[in-house]
UniProtKB/TrEMBL annotation:
<dbReference type="InterPro" id="IPR006464">
    <property type="entry name" value="AcTrfase_RimI/Ard1"/>
</dbReference>
<dbReference type="InterPro" id="IPR051556">
    <property type="entry name" value="N-term/lysine_N-AcTrnsfr"/>
</dbReference>
<protein>
    <submittedName>
        <fullName>Ribosomal-protein-alanine N-acetyltransferase</fullName>
    </submittedName>
</protein>
<feature type="domain" description="N-acetyltransferase">
    <location>
        <begin position="11"/>
        <end position="159"/>
    </location>
</feature>
<dbReference type="InterPro" id="IPR016181">
    <property type="entry name" value="Acyl_CoA_acyltransferase"/>
</dbReference>
<dbReference type="InterPro" id="IPR000182">
    <property type="entry name" value="GNAT_dom"/>
</dbReference>
<feature type="region of interest" description="Disordered">
    <location>
        <begin position="150"/>
        <end position="169"/>
    </location>
</feature>
<dbReference type="GO" id="GO:0008080">
    <property type="term" value="F:N-acetyltransferase activity"/>
</dbReference>
<keyword id="KW-0808">Transferase</keyword>
<dbReference type="Pfam" id="PF00583">
    <property type="entry name" value="Acetyltransf_1"/>
</dbReference>
Length: 169
């Protein structure tokens, strides 16, 4: 849990609920104004499909969200970080890191290779992902629309592969 500043409560993570989706869509519009932010219906579709979505809350306020899809089973499971978003007023307090760690714990439960896309100009996110074992695989030109921003595709090996690397050293 993320400790708050003076007078702030700790952040808690819990499953995202349908009642949260309007707030998620609102944050999407704020976070991704030059691109095609997810609408409420997109989040609802993700929940309907059974994907793993979390809400970060401070008190009753939703201050962040994140989602992961997992396909397949051991030993060939793959996970995809679908989204991570943190209210700009709450950024820089470790909430995105907390959400990512929770998603990766879920991926590790399936021993899944995990993939994601990130804007090439989002240095803080790239740093966060690299610190959690992701490596750049390639470049997707004009991936984000309508801005035309490029994205890196990044990969994190499954926990069993990462563990082998640690024990071999």
């Amino acid at each position: 849990m993320t400790p708050g500043g003076p007078g702030e409560s700790a952040t808690r993570l819990e499953r995202l609920r349908y009642e949260d989706l309007a707030r998620c869509a609102e944050l999407e519009r704020e976070l991704f104004p030059g691109d095609d932010p997810w609408r409420e219906s997109v989040f609802a579709s993700e929940l309907d499909q059974g994907h793993y979505y979390l809400a970060a809350r401070v008190g009753a306020e939703l201050v962040g969200y994140a989602g992961l899809s997992v396909v397949g089973r051991r030993p060939v499971a793959e996970a995809s970080v679908q989204t991570i978003g943190v209210d700009p007023r709450w950024q820089g307090r470790g909430i995105g890191r907390e959400l990512l760690r929770a998603l990766l714990d879920r991926a590790d439960a399936f021993d899944a290779t995990t993939f994601l896309e990130v804007r090439t100009d989002n240095a803080p996110a790239i740093g966060l992902y690299t610190a959690h074992g992701f490596e750049v695989l390639g470049l997707r030109r004009r991936y984000y629309q309508p801005s035309g921003a490029d994205a890196y595709t990044m990969r994190r090996p499954p926990a069993s592969e990462a563990d082998q690397g640690r024990t071999a050293s």
